[in-house]
């Protein structure tokens, strides 16, 4: 079997040039003299590809592709992952292009370095096979002699086999992960705010309408009129909060949170977006002070007003765990009237008819406990009663307040945060003194049922004369708003058995475990009132609801309106670029290719060749025409390439055996006793 293989190889390599004139594959016949054919002139493309500059060209192309890959992924970093399959495939293509260019430059350089190596040192045939074959036969990488004598060539060869990792690692550097898209200077539509001054411009019998939908603006208050509106003495005066506003207040106090309009987040932010915006408005606000044994404020001298109860009524001295009085000075029934609230008497009417004399102080007495989640003693005298309860009092006055509110819409839900509140002045700057103690329905000397006395009287807010009407309507709106809160917290809870006469038990202000006031009641009262304030946006038909970008215009119920500044953001899939991995991969490729190219150019320069030497089939056939070796027996034969003469393409190298002896090709045993001289002309 071995003889058959050797016989086959002899036809290619030639066993004896004396006895065997077989020309092998017909590529060379020493016994035949043929007229030489003039060489064809190479095209410009071939001349460039054969020159040393082609190595440099492919090095630059590979580097350019690598940089393009980096810049592409840098451009995509943090962007929404749209058309991600297309971008990933583009990245893979650029990675393949870069890898191919680096490999081509290294391949060319490896060949030139290998030719230079065999011209400097003696190598066994097996080592030469490894030098020139390691780039396409992985088994040739395991030649110890080749690694020992020319490790650079072997490293360049190894690069061919690991180069697919470039595509694997570089393609994986672009991934998709959840991220946030932020628009900080965006504009949003349908952003509404509050403008209580709209109430001052409205007449109940000739209501204002929103331009957007033509719907009637709803007031926070209900009104009576003294006449048919034609006389000089006719005017409107306040009755009570409007039912539409009461409905909102009930939702807020029973739901323990601000209410929001359906789809409000989508109307403002846009589908799929979350957003936030800041609104500014002036409205009512309760300013509360805590009166406790530790506060240093006496209950009987708050704002110069005598408290309507004594702290001894609260546990542990008394039986009340909650005791609130919020109606002292409240606006009452005004005058005997007939149909439509028209006064039965004829003008002139009493001076204080419809006058808003005072805004009642909210006096809230309550008890605190150490652990609100623990069951407390419910009867005076039980063990632990005296130690369980500590009395405290809140006193809250109604102020005109300047608000700055951050509205946030996330996942379709509206939340808010009051970032600033400035209490400017009292809604009505008077001090309550007393209420006439008479039977209900008794007409007092001034012709009214209302017996509230407050000072100074000149600060009363009266609906007449007409020049006062706008101020009156505005203060009436504040009064309506505050009354909803006062009505809810008024009353008491008495032990034992938590007997309640107050609606506070349905609100967020009372812990449901043992009906004890929640911790930090002062802050929670303020929060509940601001919940009600923000909930006015729930019904955009209200007069006080206007566009944030144009507060003088009623918003109406339809979405739209002028654009208003906001910040938008949404959770989306975003591209994530692992630049460290990609840059590391391409840096390694560039360094290997650069070293290889410099080595290849150096080899060509030192060997005196101007065209790259190749390892094509014709080059191999030409390289064996004067050297006859056995593939199986002559692997350890030492061979070296020597420069012989100058040619058109540069210096011509020929292979010779180690001692340069003659070889008659008559017997294979000659290799064992006397090294043979064989030459090969190579300018490739």
What do you see in this structure?
It is a single chain. With 684 residues, the protein is an alpha+beta fold. The chain has 3 domains: 100 residues, no CATH class; 189 residues, no CATH class; 372 residues, no CATH class. It has 16 helices and 21 strands. α3 runs antiparallel to α4. The N terminus and C terminus are likely disordered.
Secondary structure: elements and pairs:
Blueprint: H1 2-13, H2 44-50, H3 53-76, H4 84-120, E1 123-124, H5 125-133, H6 144-149, H7 151-162, H8 164-171, E2 174-188, E3 192-194, E4 221-225, E5 236-241, H9 243-255, H10 264-269, E6 274-291, E7 320-325, E8 362-368, H11 385-388, E9 390-410, E10 413-426, E11 431-435, E12 452-455, H12 469-489, E13 491-494, E14 499-500, E15 510-511, E16 516-517, H13 521-534, E17 545-547, E18 550-554, E19 564-577, H14 579-607, H15 617-623, E20 638-647, E21 650-657, H16 670-673
Antiparallel strand pairs: 1-20, 2-19, 3-17, 4-5, 6-9, 6-19, 7-8, 7-13, 8-9, 9-10, 11-12, 13-14, 15-16, 17-18, 20-21
């Amino acid at each position: 079997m071995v003889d058959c293989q050797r016989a086959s190889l002899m036809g290619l390599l030639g066993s004896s040039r004396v006895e065997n004139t077989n020309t092998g594959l017909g590529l060379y016949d020493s016994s035949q003299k043929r007229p030489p054919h003039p060489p064809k002139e190479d095209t410009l493309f071939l001349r460039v590809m054969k020159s040393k500059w082609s190595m440099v060209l492919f090095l630059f192309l590979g580097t350019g592709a690598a940089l393009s890959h980096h810049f592409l992924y840098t451009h995509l970093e943090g962007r929404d992952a749209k058309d991600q399959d297309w971008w990933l495939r583009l990245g893979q293509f650029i990675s393949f292009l870069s890898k191919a260019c680096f490999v081509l430059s290294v391949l060319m350089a490896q060949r030139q370095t290998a030719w230079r190596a065999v011209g400097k040192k003696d190598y066994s045939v097996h080592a030469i096979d490894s030098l020139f074959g390691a780039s396409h036969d992985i088994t040739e990488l395991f030649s110890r002699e080749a690694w020992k004598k020319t490790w650079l060539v072997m490293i360049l060869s190894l690069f061919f086999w690991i180069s697919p990792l470039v595509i694997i690692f570089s393609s994986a550097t672009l991934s998709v992960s959840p991220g946030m898209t932020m628009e900080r200077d965006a504009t949003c539509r349908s952003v509404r705010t509050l403008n209580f001054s709209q109430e001052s411009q409205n007449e109940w019998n000739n209501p204002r309408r929103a331009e957007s939908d033509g719907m009637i603006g709803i007031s926070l208050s209900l009104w009576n009129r003294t006449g048919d509106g034609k006389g000089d003495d006719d005017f409107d005066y306040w009755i009570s909060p409007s039912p539409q506003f009461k409905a909102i207040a009930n939702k807020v106090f029973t739901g323990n949170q601000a209410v929001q309009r359906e789809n409000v987040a989508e109307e403002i932010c846009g589908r799929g977006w979350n957003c936030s915006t800041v609104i500014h408005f002036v409205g009512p606000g309760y300013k509360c002070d805590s009166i406790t044994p530790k506060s240093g404020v006496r209950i009987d001298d708050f704002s110069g007003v005598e408290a309507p109860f004594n702290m001894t009524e609260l546990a542990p001295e008394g039986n009340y765990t909650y005791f609130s009085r919020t109606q002292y000075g409240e606006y009452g029934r005004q005058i005997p009237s007939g149909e439509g609230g028209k006064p039965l008497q004829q003008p002139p009417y009493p001076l204080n008819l419809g006058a808003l004399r005072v805004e009642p102080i909210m006096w809230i007495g309550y008890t605190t406990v150490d652990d609100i989640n623990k069951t407390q003693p419910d009867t005076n005298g039980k063990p632990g009663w005296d130690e369980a309860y500590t009395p405290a009092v809140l006193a809250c006055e109604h102020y005109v307040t300047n608000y700055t509110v951050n509205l946030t819409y996330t996942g379709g839900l509206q939340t808010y945060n009051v970032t600033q509140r400035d209490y400017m002045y009292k809604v009505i700057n008077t001090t309550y003194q007393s209420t006439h103690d008479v039977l209900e329905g008794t007409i007092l000397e001034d012709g009214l049922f209302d017996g509230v006395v407050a000072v100074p009287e000149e600060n009363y807010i009266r609906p007449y004369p007409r020049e006062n009407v706008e101020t009156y309507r505005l203060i009436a709106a504040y009064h309506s708003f505050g009354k909803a809160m006062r009505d809810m917290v008024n009353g008491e809870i008495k032990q034992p058995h938590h007997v309640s006469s107050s609606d506070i038990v349905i609100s967020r202000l009372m812990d449901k475990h043992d009906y004890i006031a929640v911790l930090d009641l002062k802050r929670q009262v303020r929060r509940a009132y601001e919940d009600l304030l923000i909930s006015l946006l729930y019904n955009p038909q209200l007069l006080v609801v206007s566009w944030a970008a144009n507060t003088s215009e009623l918003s109406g119920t339809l979405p739209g309106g002028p654009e208003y500044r906001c910040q938008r953001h949404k959770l989306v899939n975003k591209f994530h670029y692992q630049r460290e991995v990609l840059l590391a991969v391409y840096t390694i490729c560039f360094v290997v290719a650069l070293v290889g190219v410099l080595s290849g150019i150096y080899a060509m320069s030192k060997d005196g060749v101007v065209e790259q030497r190749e390892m094509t089939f014709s080059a191999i056939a030409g390289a064996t025409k004067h050297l006859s070796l056995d593939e199986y027996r002559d692997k350890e034969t030492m061979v070296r390439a020597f420069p012989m003469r100058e040619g058109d393409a540069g210096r011509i190298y020929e292979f010779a055996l180690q001692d340069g002896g003659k070889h008659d090709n008559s017997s294979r045993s000659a290799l064992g006793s006397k090294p043979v001289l064989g030459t090969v002309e190579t300018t490739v």
